[in-house]
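Worked example 2:
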Amino acid sequence: MTGPRLTPLAASLPATVPFVGPEEQERARGAPFAARLGANENLFGPSPAALDAMRAEAAEVWKYGDPKSHELREALARHMGVAPENVLVGEGIDGLLGNLVRLLVAPGDAVVTSDGAYPTFNYHVTGFGGALHKVPYADDAEDLPALIDRAREVDAKLVYFANPDNPMGTWTSGAKVAAALDTLPDGCVLCLDEAYVEFAPAGTAPQIAADDPRVIRMRTFSKAYGMAGARIGYAVADAGLIAAFDRVRNHFGMNRMAQAGALAALQDGAWLAHVQTQVARSRDAITAAAVENGLTALPSAANFVAVDCGRDGAFARAALAALVDRGVFVRMPFVAPQDRCIRVSCGPEREMAVLADMLPRALAEARENT
């Protein structure tokens, strides 16, 4: 009797996933987290109008979701000032990234990203046999000119660039991003991940024509709109590239309730403004907690703050482990020198109070053990 026969590519892949979820960590520690501040979720929650829309749509859940996401695409097109054929709705940015890589990257094709940037992108590239080429951060920020230079050197088909960046929260002006497109080598596409752009200063989002074939922009309802569990994101790109997704995507991947909730959330500008205000206050609270403990908080254009622990990665990992042991779920960058930091998501006052209480204790333990 034989078992399943994996493809040579699948058999060669490491048995790892990009992230260990907080639920798994809670099961391992035998207790829930008092402050869930590690996944950059929006702890302030979704628009009440979005919740109402999803509840109403629950009665229709016996139906498949609209495979075209027609109403939501139309609304997103108006929101972005583009045509509906320039918009694609998908299962969060993660799902969109997987399909983009499947479309563009054959085994052995070169792909460029930053060393230590969002690991799920790397997971997809490796899963389709692409060859990853990584560029170091510069002053804790992704280095777009260096990424493009490397793309030219290796004849890359795809470059990944997040603005604002995860995990550091740093950002590049939209004008610089738009200008950089003119240096992109022929046949290379820039994947611009704008998951956190609603939290960023004015001018961070570049002015790029939707039909520019050199770039695909990705945004999400997981962050500012508070719908991470609904798994809904969208891409804006040239109509030809958007249409190509129909060749590989899961056409019934978007559930009805998520579509209805996203449409209502998009229309509730007052709630979005409320969340943006709360996130700004929470960034200040995280910064204050860091300063009170002799640490440095990096300026952030996202709904999290990277806190420089002032030593090396071993110390930051010890501090993180001590926080987790005390019921505070946080994460950290994986690659030096950014791994000297821990990354703390924004949250309401209760969670910020837990952080402020536990951080000095965790740091004291880390100093004893490193």
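The chain is about 40% helix and 15% strand. The longest strand covers residues 215-220.
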